[in-house]
Amino acid sequence: MNEHIFIDLKEVGEDGTFKGIASVMDVEDLGGDIIDKGAFTKTLQENPKVPVLWQHDPSEVIGIGEVKEFNGKVYIDGKLDMTDPIAVKAHGKMKNKLIKGLSVGFQTIKSTWEKIGDRHVRHIGELKLFEVSVVTFAMNPGAQIIAVKSQEAIDERFKALESQISALTAELSTVKAAGTGEPAAKEPTEPVVDHSAALSIIDSLRARMIA
């Protein structure tokens, strides 16, 4: 049995690539379901890549996506099949903000019920993810496209990111040289890269980009 929760779509590229939040844990949707943290862990370990469907129609596979869990959210990096007319239609509506949602289709493996006042809320403790769909209507009030970006805009963003990384790496080199009492080399021919520091910088900047 497929069940759905609707979240938001973040970025859409000219080549059919898109990024979005496919699910949020510990948040009640309008259907009275809460997906608990850890519910996606096993299914994503088994298979992080899932088909992307149009409106949960299994006959309309319009792409593929890689799903990852981070900080209580499930993110998807997807790619629409731009040779498929339905995918092209979906892409156009996504770009024009006529389609604003993503939805996950899954089977509940483990669940419990919590009584809140005079109603019951279902907690989903484990699920099996089958697909992520591009959808029209969202059960989650916050389900909407936040930004639609062309490939040129994405390229400019990455150029800016590279410039920030270069500047921060140079600053680290200056600080290290100051600590040893030696002047920093202005134009080293073979710079030594502190990989751990670089990774920390990249993670920090990526977090800023997602926020």
Structural summary, described in words:
This protein is of the alpha+beta class and about 210 residues long. It contains four helices and eight strands. A seven-stranded mixed β-barrel has the order 1-2-6-5-4-8-7. Helix 3 (about 150-180) runs antiparallel to helix 4 (about 195-210). The chain is globular, with a radius of gyration of 21 Å.
Brief rundown of the structure:
This protein is of the alpha+beta class. The chain has helices at 41-46, 85-95, 151-180, 195-210, and strands spanning 3-12, 17-24, 33-35, 49-54, 57-70, 73-80, 101-116, 119-135.
Portion of residues in beta strands equals 35-45%
| Number of separate strands | 8
Strand order of the largest sheet: 1-2-6-5-4-8-7
Low-confidence residue ranges: 141-155, 188-193
Biggest beta-sheet profile = 7 strands, mixed, barrel
* Number of discrete helical segments: 4
Number of domains: 2
The overall pLDDT average reads 77
**What characteristic shape results from the CA principal axes?**
globular
Distance between the termini: 34 Å
Proportion of residues in helical segments = 25-40%
- What class would the helix/strand composition place it in? alpha+beta
Q: Helix-strand pattern, N to C?
A: EEEHEEEHEEHH
- Rg measurement, Å: 21 Å
